[in-house]
Amino acid sequence: MTTITSELQAKGAAARQAARQLARLSTEVKNRALLAIAEALDARQEEILAANREDHQAAQVSGLSPAVVDRLLLNPERLSAVAKDVRTVALLPDPVGEVIDMRTLPNGLVAGRRRVPLGVIAAIYESRPNVTVDIASLCLKSGNACILRGGKEVIRSNTVLARVMREAVVAAGVPEGAVQLIENTDRALVGEMLKMRDVIDLVVPRGGGELVRFVAENARMPVLVGGIGVCHTYVDRAADIDMAVRVVHNAKCRRCSICNALDTLLVHADIAEAFLPAIARVWAEAGVEMRCDPRALRVLQEQGTRNKEQGTGNKEQGTRNKEQQGGLGSLKLVPCSDVDFDTEFLALVAAVRVVDSLDDALDHIERHGTGHSDAIISEDYSAARRFVDEVDTAVVYVNASTQFTDGAQFGLGAEIIDSTQKTIARGPVGLREITTYKWIVLGSGQTRP
């Protein structure tokens, strides 16, 4: 047995043993443990942030992309938000033990389902240390043990976070082994984990497409897939332009490195000449690169030409025109390539296309979407209804930013993953989605004829 296999088997055995005890823990004990985690995150903030600073500096030196560097960063505000989410999980109803559809059958048997934990959940993820806390807290509340394997770029942060959580929950009465972190960063370990069907009941990959595909193709246990999002916002002919600018800008720029950030902007031809220059002015200030199809490119280039011509008059008029442009002259405007509409940018880059109809927008999303989060901006009820009915996506929005696709924002406290599949769970995955059920049948001596 290799050292890697030995470590995995030991942690797996500890997690399986803890899972049996977790399934019987009272809600009171689980909530006490969660509150202890939140308090420890606040009290030991400097220890956690010091480890994260080392990860952050190493990531910058190693040349990781700005999106990855941003994802792994913790600061006092982000860490406080993580602690707040843990407290929210503690306040949520405990799904374990919930009885579903209990009914009396014609033969007198009383049959129904009772919600129970899955057992052991493994998470394989990259970059974001908050995932370590999110998954551990949701698993704890739902009575599951967890085995966590983060990326090497955040190993210092994750090691400290896992230690802080373990110490807090054990002191609160949770069995040791409930929260396991694999500290070995050898990539061969992932392949070994995916063979542990006798220990792991569900594996959740969170990261880039290569990681997700590898796990989905090699795991011997069920896999909960998601996280990869080519997210669209369609600005309909009946959109309110001011609203559309606010929503589209937020969807792209609030935090561009997350999976629910806007990647592709679709604009109806009837509104393109009014809307595209408006969003371009805002995006120029934010430094967004617009990779445009020929029609969008022509609209924006013509607008730029008109602004230049108008600015050649007297000095006062030129100043007013410059103010009206709002920085349009500094816009990063690029013709789109064949792959742009299939790209999750995770950066201040957006693909832009002008479409002739709602049908064209729906067809585009069908071809290029990943089923994560897609939005329509429209004051036309029938158009919005069609979009909601016909877009095959985990989360569909009307007149709102796709940045809301998040377990905490949906009242789940946190999330295991944003699932893009159609089995097990879809969209932000919270407590209920990581439980299963058993049938309970109560009789009074019935036998089957």
Short description:
The chain has 449 residues and is α/β, with parallel strands linked by helices. It is built from 15 helices and 16 strands. Strand 3, helix 6 and strand 4 form a beta-alpha-beta unit.
Give the terminus-to-terminus CA distance.
52 Å
Helix content: 40-55%
Number of domains: 2
- Overall number of strands: 16
Look at the structure and give the mean pLDDT: 92
Q: From the coordinates shown, what is the CATH architecture of the largest domain?
A: 3-Layer(aba) Sandwich
Going by CATH, the homologous superfamily of the largest domain would be: Aldehyde Dehydrogenase, Chain A, domain 1
Backbone shape: globular
Number of helices: 15
User: Compute the gyration radius: what is it?
Assistant: 25 Å
Q: Could you list the spans in which at least 5 consecutive residues all have pLDDT below 50? A: 317-327
Explain the overall architecture.
The protein has 449 residues and is α/β, with parallel strands linked by helices. The protein folds into two domains: 236 residues, Aldehyde Dehydrogenase, Chain A, domain 1 (3-Layer(aba) Sandwich), CATH 3.40.605.10; 174 residues, Aldehyde Dehydrogenase, Chain A, domain 2 (3-Layer(aba) Sandwich). Helix content is 45%, strand content 18%. It is built from 15 helices and 16 strands. It has a seven-stranded parallel sheet with strand order 10-9-11-8-7-12-13, with helices on both faces. Strands 5-4-3-6 form a four-stranded parallel sheet, sandwiched between helices. Strands 1-2-16 form a three-stranded antiparallel sheet, with no helix packed on it. Helix 3 runs antiparallel to helix 4 and helix 5 packs parallel to helix 6. The radius of gyration is 25 Å and the shape is globular. It starts with a helix and ends in a 7-residue tail after the last strand. About 2% of the residues have low confidence.
